[in-house]
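User: Fold this; tokens only.

Assistant: Input:
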Amino acid sequence: MKIPDPVSPGCEGVDLAIGQTVPWPTNEWTVRSPDEMGMDSEVVEAAFEYAFRPEHHTQALIVIRGGAIVAERYGEGADEGSYAASWGVARSFTSALIGIAIDEGLIEDVKVPMTTFFPEWIGTDKAPITLRSVLWMQSGIDYLSGVEPSLLPEEDMTCGLSHDVLSASRNNPVESPPDTTWFYSNGDTELLDGVISAATG
């Protein structure tokens, strides 16, 4: 469907749902069927069936096209009001918040030691870790990320399944010196959460 007039600048040529002038955000979500938005309903349903296979551990799946929700489904016991792990999305937002805090003078710069925010690390093997080390996922702190939980021993799931993931992350052992090894770590992102809390109150 073509965009109704008037069209917001920058959105020319983008297929939007009827009544939409920007893809997002809007005051409320528009809901349309896949067919209304030029999508094959059977293909969408097949995608949902694949996503919600038990081995995929899917929390939720929402398909959006042209600013409209065309399909959504949630895991057992969940709905649109449930909390869900955002994983990689949170990394981008968290890093952006660190940048804002630096711009506002709440954090000096990325070279500050993490002991500024976690004073209990002073005098430990975590003392050399800087904020930049954590932002670049080079803290050297041991944290298994992206591994199927059923394949891990119980102690390796502590951080991901803990109700207090920040405490689990800040207490994990150091595996290598900071800035020597890159590792896609959920734990480093959790540490940034603690930095923001400590810096902004």
